[in-house]
Design brief:
By secondary structure, the chain is mainly α. It is built from 21 helices and 2 strands. It has helices at 25-59, 66-91, 93-113, 117-145, 151-179, 184-187, 189-203, 217-234, 242-262, 276-306, 311-339, 344-360, 369-384, 387-396, 403-436, 439-445, 454-458, 462-475, 480-494, 529-538, 541-546, and strands at 8-13, 16-21. Pfam families: MFS_1.
């Protein structure tokens, strides 16, 4: 049977066949190198930092503030995401991506020059603002160039950027710490960032956005403030200021909700949450972020301090997680493109991740590395079946005008979950570790307990080293029980995901005003008038007005 080229789609409406073109392969091929380089840069920052973090915190005399080094980047990136998504919808995604690259490079320079933990925390926040813009802009650009149904074909290519970051990042971070200095993990970002900026500027060409409503900057500021305050409260960083910060957080959330209801074009339209295809994936992403990022952030510390592995070896363990994640992500993406069905993958993924997280909670300082690898691989397999499917569902549920906003909201909630997970679990780990260290060992170490690095640990007397390893090895793993509980909640939510048809036409070449175009099937023809009327009545009011095509039809 003759098969149409990949970039052509035929829509049958009222007995007539209209041939339309998907996003041009040449445009996708031209843009992909720059987008892949951006994704590599954003992913590299996470993977290269994880294996070097204990040495960074120890060198700057702040092992007790290790969670804050992680959280500062996550909080800033999370706070920047809604505004980056909305500005991309309003002023063009390319312009926002270029601006994010400049801020990210500036943050990397400052981090490399940091002389104290407070300075590093502040500069990581600057870099996080740029990193948030990178993640949102890259995902939204792919959502504009490639339709959800065809996305699976590109997951393998997109995944190659993460594979490269997963291979290069942990090893480069470990080598920098073992042979040079941790500052080189930030200096490496500078030439990569400049190269990404040059490639994106030359190869990415997107249509200018339509005329837009005024951006809700007041709502964006209140939302950013609320995010920062909530994460600080969850991490226990407020101290005696907790009541005041709790009141300020509540006031910020209330103010944001008020502006979201009154603004012409709110930073996050609340009406999006009326659609189950949007609300459930964003909730699952929050839970996945909590469990996954907390595990990835603290696993290297357990391997280096609790098991005595080198930074390079602990980076190799993280590589196993990423390989598992990308393998199931690629395979499930191809199957979704082939069948058009997706619900089974997040259900299976969350079911697989729960026992893997529980297995982490059984570890101690005497555990076999093979048990660690088995748990790491299982978690990677599970998360890989979930993360990109959630992005696909959200981008499939909205029109072009809300593409950046919807993408940023999903990633925002995943990052909020990650930041809260790191803050909460990090505080529990620190408290349990300090309590578990024998009094005489803690007294002999003094302030060195907060400056503990793998190198310093190796230089301790054998008896003291064994006591510290025993304390850390016993303090960290039980905390992973909370990650398993959170993943179990994600599994329950995945059971209620709706199965919808996936749009087959990319927004970049859709002449219908940005309305989602669903795949036609014999059993449920979206071309029929009755079906269009049912979909129109079922949609929330804000989508009926935003996603209406010029001829009055809705998707």
């Amino acid at each position: 049977m003759f098969r149409k080229p990949a970039h052509v789609v035929a829509d049958r409406v009222a007995g007539h066949v209209t041939v339309r073109h998907r996003a041009r392969p040449s445009a996708i091929r031209a843009a992909l190198p720059g987008i892949l380089l951006v994704m590599f840069l954003a992913a590299l920052d996470q993977t290269i930092m994880a294996s070097a973090l204990p040495s960074v915190a120890g060198d700057l005399n702040g092992l007790d503030r290790m969670p804050a080094i992680i959280t500062s980047y996550l909080v800033a990136a999370t706070a920047a995401m809604p505004l980056a998504g909305k500005l991309g919808d309003a002023f063009g995604r390319k312009r926002i991506l270029q601006s994010a690259l400049v801020v990210f490079i500036l943050g990397a320079v400052l981090c490399g020059l940091a002389q104290s933990v407070p300075a590093l925390i502040a500069f990581r926040a600057v870099q996080g603002i740029g990193g948030g813009g990178l993640m949102i802009s890259a995902q939204a650009i792919i959502g504009e160039l490639v339709s959800p149904r065809e996305r699976g074909r590109y997951l393998g290519i997109i995944g190659s950027a993460f594979i490269a970051a997963a291979v290069v990042g942990p090893l480069a971070g470990g080598v920098a710490v073992d042979l040079f200095t941790w500052r080189w993990i930030f200096y490496l970002h500078i030439p990569l960032g400049i190269a990404a900026l040059a490639v994106v500027s030359m190869t990415l060409h997107l249509a200018a956005p339509a005329r837009h409503e005024p951006v809700d900057y007041a709502g964006a500021a209140l939302l950013c403030l609320a995010i920062v305050l909530v994460i600080l409260l969850c991490g226990g960083a407020a101290g005696r200021e907790t009541p005041f910060l709790a009141l300020a957080a509540a006031a910020s959330v209330a103010g944001w909700l008020l502006t979201a209801r009154r603004a012409t074009d709110p930073i996050i339209p609340l009406g999006l949450f009326r659609d189950r295809s949007f609300a459930i994936p964003t909730a699952i992403s929050f839970l996945i972020g909590f469990a996954m990022f907390a595990t990835v952030s603290f696993l290297p510390a357990f391997l280096q301090v609790g098991l005595g592995l080198s930074a390079t070896a602990s980076g190799g363990v993280l590589l196993v997680l990423v390989v598992g994640l990308l393998s199931t992500m690629t395979v499930s993406g191809l199957l979704i493109t082939w069948t058009g069905r997706y619900k089974a993958y997040p259900v299976a993924g969350t079911a697989l991740a729960v026992p893997a997280a529980w297995l982490f909670s059984t570890l101690d300082s005497r555990s076999s590395i093979w048990v660690v690898l088995a748990a790491t691989l299982g978690l990677g397999f599970g998360i890989g079946l979930v993360m990109q499917v959630m992005v696909l569902l959200v981008q499939n549920s909205v029109g072009r005008r809300d593409l950046g906003t919807a993408t940023s909201t999903l990633t925002l909630l995943r990052q909020v979950g990650a930041a809260i997970g790191v803050a909460v679990l990090g505080s529990l780990i620190t408290a349990r570790f300090v309590a578990a260290v024998p009094t005489e060992v803690a007294a002999s170490l003094g302030e060195g307990l907060n400056s503990l690095t793998p190198q310093l640990l190796a230089g301790l007397p054998a008896e003291d080293r064994a006591a510290v390893q025993e304390a850390f090895g016993g303090a960290l793993p039980p905390v992973f029980v909370y990650a398993a509980i959170v993943l179990a909640a994600a599994f329950v939510l995945a059971l209620f995901l709706p199965q919808r048809e996936l749009r087959t036409v990319a927004f970049a070449d859709d002449d219908g005003g940005g309305a989602p175009v669903r795949q036609r099937s014999g059993r449920d023809s979206a071309g029929s008038k009755q079906h269009r009327e049912r979909r129109h009545r079922a949609q929330p009011a804000h989508r009926r007005t935003r996603d209406a095509a010029p001829d009055g039809r809705t998707a």
